[in-house]
Specification:
48% helix; Beta-Lactamase; five-stranded antiparallel β-sheet; 621 residues; single chain
């Protein structure tokens, strides 16, 4: 179909006269049917075939041009003129606000120029096309010359306008016209409605394909950026550079850049399409959270800022940047972390051409990805700093533990002899002195020496316990037989207490542990329970599975814990009264060391009914 003037030589300012209908060839009369009836039937048949051919042609064009609706409109106006016998035909599109002239057939060039001058326009009653849009219905005008509201600069006396509807809303209009006045036939109206329906289908197909293409482009762009993020997760410059380039490419922007924080202020960072002069100028210009720039407004308000023409914006003050960048339209999208701007993604165009809603949506997605990339790098930096601090602390702890072990060894080997000498001297004085006044002092000195000696022994044993645990080698252990063996041993040495395994016929339950260490830990729990248990009481040893752990619980009736239970697992912790030489306070400490060495934990608590205590070892299965 031709855009603008059609074929032939129409008179300036008027449309071509309708061509005379060709006479059908005379056919012989057959049977008893009258010649006029035969002629009418043949004419109706020929018209139906022509309409079918035109409809098929339009559908063929729709099928072969799924992304371009223009060829469909051109085919429709040609078919409308041919089949409806009109002088001309026009097609208009409606974007929801303005009417746009699209194409015509058999219209004088001067009228085409007039159409280009008047459109786009808001619908009004000066033409049939506006009336169709305003009423959303078919408009028939038998004689435009008698209509005072009609714009008589346009040709045609008899006019027919039909809307193209999508879900009841007009998306365009087809208008045809004749040079003479008169009524429009039902057949002509119905045919033009068919063409309008086909045009609406073509528009909808194009819209859907366009949306699909945009969606695929957005998905491709998002996938590309995510791929860069995954490959260069901690190289922020690479990620943001890929992001601004993708945003500019997929949103048809001439330039793009990222504003992000540096030394407590916001500056232009990664960019594409910027001249070196503009880059050098912006790199040292801080962007404040104020209304003088689009980025500043995005930082200030935490929302998308869209300026169609920065030169027409009275608040825009980055004049030198605009001169160097030669941009007019700008889109600024904040990069948010917990609703707080941490940067801005800017897209710029050299011409006044606002961005579409789809493009703004895509840029918002890019800004979210940029915020994720910045946050990842920030978190990585914090993690690295914490890891370095932990490494330094670990080294300090290791040095301290090494010093403690060395100190224990030093006390054992270097202090033992002087303490033994002092103890011997005190004993000698006690045996040889007959001065009753000195005896209290001698007894106090003797007690102090024994205390020092006990401290040396406890420190040495704690060091030995840690070394003992560190040497353990794990192997598969079935817990029920191990517990039955230990219970049997304790039952022989504690006749007044009944040790019971619950359940007694526990099925196999394997853990990976060092058998010697595990026996020592469970033995300490049994000994601890036996020392606090009431006379003639029962000590229960419960074995159960708790999720991903095997749990060994030892319960005894007796005094409850009045202290912080965590403290009981520390070295030298004891709640017993009596000679300190008997209890070193290392039993539960060893239990904790063994449990943690195998990736588990040890806990102790009072029974719910307040009748005693339960100590547990958790071991991973």
């Amino acid at each position: 179909m031709q855009r603008g003037s059609g074929s032939g030589q129409p008179v300036k300012g008027q449309c071509r006269s309708r061509p005379k209908a060709r006479k059908a060839p005379t056919a012989p009369v057959t049977g008893d049917r009258p010649p006029k009836q035969i002629t009418r039937s043949k004419r109706e048949r020929d018209e139906a075939l022509e309409q079918l051919a035109a409809t098929s042609e339009i559908l063929r064009v729709i099928r072969t041009s799924p992304t371009d609706v223009q060829p469909v409109f051109e085919t429709i106006v040609r078919s409308a003129v041919s089949l409806c016998g009109s002088v001309f035909a026009n097609v208009f599109r409606f974007d929801g606000e303005l009417l746009h002239w699209v194409t015509s057939h058999n219209v004088d060039p001067s009228i085409v120029d007039l159409l280009k001058t008047k459109f786009p326009m808001r619908p009004d009653r000066s033409q049939v096309v506006g009336r169709v849009l305003l009423t959303k219905s078919v408009i028939r005008l038998e004689d435009a010359l008698t209509d005072p509201d009609y714009d008589h600069r346009f040709p045609g006396r008899r006019l027919l306008g039909v809307p193209m509807l999508r879900e009841g809303d007009p998306v365009g209009v087809i208008v045809i016209g004749w040079a003479e006045a008169g009524p429009v036939t039902k057949a002509q109206e119905q045919l033009l409605k068919t063409f309008a329906d086909q045009a609406a289908i073509a528009i909808e197909n194009t819209r859907l394909l366009s949306e699909l293409r945009e969606s695929l482009q957005q998905q491709t762009a998002t996938a590309d950026v995510l791929k860069v993020i995954s490959r260069s997760a901690f190289d922020l410059r690479t990620v943001l550079q890929a992001l601004v380039e993708s945003a500019a490419r997929f949103c048809s922007a001439d330039k793009a850049n990222v504003i992000r924080e540096r030394n407590g202020a916001f500056y232009s960072a990664e960019s594409c399409g910027f001249s070196q002069e503009l880059v050098d100028y912006l790199k040292d210009v801080p962007i404040e959270a104020e209304r003088g720039t689009a980025s500043g407004r995005a930082l200030l308000e935490g929302r998308v800022i869209h300026i169609a023409d920065v030169k027409s914006d009275p608040e825009y003050t980055l004049v030198e940047g605009q001169r160097l960048g030669d941009y007019r339209t700008i889109l600024s999208v904040p990069m948010l972390r917990e609703s707080v701007p941490i940067g801005v993604l800017n897209l710029l165009r050299s011409e006044i051409r606002p961005f579409t809603d789809k493009q703004i949506e895509l840029v918002t997605t890019f800004a979210d990805q940029a915020a994720i990339a910045i946050e990842n790098v920030r978190l990585l930096g914090e993690l690295n700093r914490e890891r370095e601090a932990l490494a330094r602390q670990h080294q300090a702890d290791a040095r301290y533990i090494s010093w403690l072990r060395q100190l224990a060894g030093f006390l054992r080997h270097e202090v033992r002899q002087p303490v033994a000498q002092i103890n011997s001297s005190v004993e000698l004085i006690h045996l040889t002195s007959h001065d009753d006044q000195l005896r209290p002092y001698i007894a106090s000195a003797s007690q102090g020496v024994r205390h020092v000696w006990n401290l040396i022994e406890r420190a040495s044993r704690a060091t030995d316990a840690e070394a003992f645990v560190c040497q353990g080698q794990a192997q598969p252990i079935d817990l029920p037989p191990l517990l039955r063996e230990l219970i049997g041993s304790y039952q022989q040495t504690h006749s007044g207490i009944d040790f019971r395994l619950q359940p007694p016929d526990k099925e196999p339950l394997y853990v990976s542990a060092d058998p010697t260490l595990l026996k020592e830990a469970v033995s300490n729990l049994l000994a601890n329970a036996a020392s606090f248990a009431d006379e003639e009481s029962i000590i229960q040893v419960v074995l159960e599975r708790d999720g991903v752990h095997a749990v060994i619980k030892v319960r005894n009736k007796g005094p409850i814990i009045q202290y912080d239970t965590e403290m009981l697992f520390g070295p030298f912790a004891s709640t017993r009264s009596g000679p300190s030489s008997e209890h070193q306070g290392l039993g539960l400490y060893l239990v904790r060391l063994v449990a943690e060495h195998h990736g588990g934990k040890a806990i102790i608590s009072n029974l719910d009914d307040g009748s005693g205590v339960e100590a547990s070892i958790f071991l991973p299965l």
